From TrEMBL, chain A:
Organism (species): Mycetocola tolaasinivorans
Alphabetical list of InterPro entries matching this protein: Bact_solute-bd_prot1, SBP
Keywords tagged on the record: Signal
Entry protein name: Extracellular solute-binding protein
Record has rRNA processing as a keyword: no
Signal peptide residues on this chain, from the entry's feature table: 1-30
UniProt keyword annotation of Signal present: yes
Lineage, opening ranks: Bacteria, Bacillati, Actinomycetota, Actinomycetes, Micrococcales
Cited Gene3D superfamilies: Periplasmic binding protein-like II
TrEMBL record, chain B:
Keywords: Cell membrane, Membrane, Transmembrane, Transmembrane helix, Transport
Domain ABC transmembrane type-1 positions: 102-300
Protein's GO biological process: transmembrane transport
Region spans: Disordered: 1-29
Family that this chain belongs to: Belongs to the binding-protein-dependent transport system permease family.
Source organism per UniProt: Mycetocola tolaasinivorans
Example of a GO cellular component annotation carried by this entry: plasma membrane
Compositional bias per record (Polar residues), positions renumbered to this chain: 1-13
Bilayer-spanning residue ranges: 37-59, 106-127, 139-161, 173-192, 213-238, 277-300
Source species, domain of life: Bacteria
Entries under InterPro entries matching the protein: MetI-like, MetI-like_sf
Protein name: Carbohydrate ABC transporter permease
Length: 454, 315
């Protein structure tokens, strides 16, 4: 409804002005890629600036608290534009509503926040606008290569990266010290030794949660595995039985069998308790992890935490992985794709906005400019003993394999993880068997969905 | 909730057993001998079951995030009494969005409950006092609809409202809330006894129309029942989660239930980008959200008791 009103208003405005400029602007807006008519049409920066001068309202679905501030900034810069920031739910909740609205053909927003691993599930049925026509390729060099490859899916560019989750090891220095682990484990072999020493003090080095596929896939990613592949159309690959994945699996099997890592779920009450009371000495997590601890849940342990790189498989060739993060995409059918594009770009690239993302919304920024900004990179955090923790995450980001891909059915992959691999972790049964079951479930599901599995 | 209901039902049952409403189960409790150790123990258990979570909530609302995870549930945390800090941050977060949710909840519950009470009273009164064709069939439908949980109706209701372009508006929450089959059933049981048919007849002889009898005589006699139905309706709408969850997309329209769940989601899922742990705010927010309900109960209980007394004198 909002769309039809605004387009009517635009038509009225154009008639009233009767200026050629306004008329062409209106025509361009009407024939935008939102209507799916002219996919080869290119837009120039002038088109975007012209669109920003017309009264327009756009809607952005997202769940990061406080993005209204950036919307306000944008509105101050472009007084004709109104940005409605709406939180319709987090992650899967939002995707469900988005899919419903897209299917219904009404009620969808102009922009949506989408996690990288779920982008393909929207591009596979053409629900997102390819930003190439707007000149998005120019943004390529503003982001780390691996991060850009998360939105540039070969077939098109489907969003601007907002934040990232390079992984590292958050650990309790006091517990490590008490156990005689003087330096954080540099390799997975050292990790097992450290786990044994820490177990003797009564703590676990960490938990391997059976409810968090994202983290497990991060471990695979770090080992150099490429479990998933998608050609952007109808062909996918599922490689959960590759040597790299098996290497990770066997390592965890060993640690679990010896009782050196816990198998409780994460983000539960007892997990937070375990973090606060020293049950766990480490949390191998992403750059968005620290905020869950230093915002208060573990304030009693402030100062005794540190951040170290992930343990390596081959110390001479350090590798890392990404867990989580999301971007801003434009939903097909948006009546104002030019304005939506301008906002997405502003939100994720404007220096003032990215600084807010980093410091006020506690995200690990996506742009190289913000990542390397001195006040960010050398920001000291008292919770981590005044360590410059962002430097560890930046080094991690630089070691992330750029070729990691996702499947267009990640919802199912995550869900079936809990019933196969994750269940094997939770029940203490054979992980290899869980892995096989997971692979099988994904292949079967993909086939019923009409994908060719190679 | 059940305990507030029992006196109403049992008193009406005791007053006019001749009417023989089969659907008045708690009659037994009225005739049970006063002393029963077993029953007392049972009631203590039930009371503990209902009260312990509330007491836990009251303690938890005074704790910081760390306190929540490092202290015993039924004791204060060692790092200080944080209730007022928590309340301040709940109301300050995101430019006071909590206050907006509180207002929405009050509006939905208020309008929904008034509507539900009016409709239920009129329907119950009609079922109890008028003979009309199809009365039995309609009443069976009413009874049947009590059996269907609101949650099961949420999706069909969504499709209906979507067809009428009413989703994502206040009406999407208010309109379904003003239908209360259980309230109508309750009012029917209550009206059957509370409104004397001979009183209606004498009013008719004095020339009063049916509407006037309902408004001026019926409503007054039904007051205690009305308060009960109103309370039920307020609580049901106040606590409704699933319906607003699927109906509403706009955060400005959320009631407390959906808003608090959103905060909780922020606290318990990593990887989504943004947020962080805000458990103390979720808990304090929940604590604040039940306070109006407690006051409403305490306040309306007076009316409800005085109404009972008035009824017994007139009876």
């Amino acid at each position: 409804m909002k769309n039809s009103i605004s387009s009517r208003m635009r038509t009225l405005g154009a008639l009233a002005l009767a200026g050629t400029l306004a008329l062409t602007g209106c025509a361009a807006g009407a024939a935008g890629p939102g209507n799916g008519s002219a996919s080869e049409q290119k837009y120039t920066e002038e088109d975007i600036q012209a669109a920003l001068k017309k009264p327009t309202t756009i809607t952005y679905w997202q769940w990061t608290p406080g993005i209204e501030k950036q919307a306000k900034l944008f509105q101050e810069k472009y007084p004709e534009i109104t940005v409605n920031v709406v939180n319709v739910g987090q992650g899967p909740d939002e995707y469900a509503k988005l899919r419903t609205a897209i299917k219904a053909g009404k009620g969808a927003p102009d922009l949506a926040m989408i996690e990288y691993q779920f982008l393909d599930s929207f591009t596979v049925n053409g629900s997102l606008v390819d930003l190439t026509a707007f000149g998005a390729a120019e943004s390529k060099d503003k982001y780390p290569e691996w991060l850009w490859s998360q939105v540039d899916r070969g077939k098109g560019i489907y969003g601007f990266p907002s934040n990232a989750g390079p992984m590292a090891n958050l650990y309790r220095k006091d517990i490590y010290d008490a156990a005689g682990v003087t330096t954080p484990p540099a390799t997975w072999t050292e990790f097992a030794d450290a786990a044994a020493k820490i177990r003797e003090t009564g703590s676990y080095i960490m938990t391997l949660p059976g409810n968090n596929a994202g983290q497990t896939i991060g471990y695979f990613w770090q080992a150099g595995a490429k479990p998933f592949g998608f050609d952007g159309d109808k062909t996918i690959t599922v490689n959960l039985d590759s040597p790299e994945v098996q290497k990770v699996t066997d390592n965890f099997q060993d640690l679990l069998d010896k009782g050196l890592v816990d198998n409780s779920n994460d983000f539960t009450d007892s997990w937070f308790q375990g973090i606060a009371n020293g049950k766990y000495a480490s949390w191998l997590t992403a750059a968005w992890g620290p905020v869950f601890l230093d915002s208060g849940t573990a304030a009693n342990t402030a100062g005794s935490w540190r951040v170290a790189p992930l343990p390596q498989w081959d110390a001479s060739k350090p590798r890392s992985a990404n867990w989580g993060g999301n971007g801003t995409s434009i939903v097909k059918g948006s009546a104002n794709p030019l304005v939506a594009y301008a906002f997405a770009r502003f939100l994720n690239e404007d220096p003032v906005s990215t600084k807010m993302l980093a410091f006020e919304q506690s995200q690990f920024p996506a742009t190289i400019a913000q990542q390397e900004a001195p006040d960010f990179a050398s920001n000291t955090v008292p919770f981590f003993g005044d360590q410059e923790i962002n430097r560890v995450f930046l080094d991690s980001s630089a070691q992330i394999d750029t070729g990691f891909q996702w499947l267009p059915i990640m919802d199912f992959v995550f869900q079936s993880y809990n019933e196969t691999y994750g269940k094997a972790i939770a029940d203490g049964t054979n992980l290899r068997a869980g892995l096989t079951a997971w692979q099988k479930a994904i292949v079967e599901y993909a086939t019923t969905q009409g994908f060719t599995v190679k | 909730m059940t305990s507030t209901l029992n006196p109403t039902r049992s008193s009406s049952a005791a007053k006019k057993p001749a009417h023989g409403n089969r659907a008045v189960p708690p009659r037994k409790s009225a005739i049970t001998p006063r002393k029963s150790g077993l029953l007392t123990a049972l009631m203590v258990c039930v009371a503990a079951y209902f009260l312990l979570p509330l007491i836990w909530l009251a303690f938890a609302a005074t704790k910081s995030d760390t306190g929540l995870f490092t202290s015993f549930g039924f004791a204060f945390a060692s790092d200080g009494f944080k209730l007022f800090d928590n309340i301040a941050s709940v109301f300050a977060y995101q430019d006071g969005v909590f206050l907006k949710w509180l207002g929405n909840t009050a509006l939905y519950a208020g309008v929904g409950a008034i509507g539900a009470t009016l409709l239920a009273t009129a329907a119950g009164y009609a079922f109890a006092k008028y003979e009309f064709p199809g009365r039995k069939a309609l009443f069976s439908v009413l009874l049947g609809s009590i059996m269907v949980p609101l949650t099961a109706l949420a999706v069909p209701t969504y499709l209906l409202f979507s067809g009428m372009q009413l989703t994502n508006t206040m009406w999407a929450v208010i309109l379904p809330s003003i239908i209360s089959p259980f309230g109508a059933y309750l009012m029917r049981v209550y009206a059957a006894d509370a409104v004397d048919t001979s009183l209606m007849e004498s009013a008719r002889i004095d020339g009063a129309g049916e509407l006037r009898i309902f408004w001026q005589i019926g409503l007054r006699l039904l007051a205690p029942g009305i308060v009960t139905v109103f309370l039920f309706a307020v609580v049901a709408t106040w606590n409704n989660y699933f319906l607003p969850l699927i109906m509403l997309n706009n955060g400005d329209l959320f009631p407390l239930t959906v808003g608090l769940a959103q905060w909780q989601a922020t606290s318990t899922s990593g990887g989504g980008g943004g947020g962080g742990a805000m458990f103390s705010m979720v808990i304090t927010g929940s604590f604040v959200s039940i306070i109006p309900l407690i006051f409403l109960f305490l306040y309306l209980q007076r009316y409800w008791q005085s109404g009972l007394a008035a009824g017994s004198v007139k009876g």
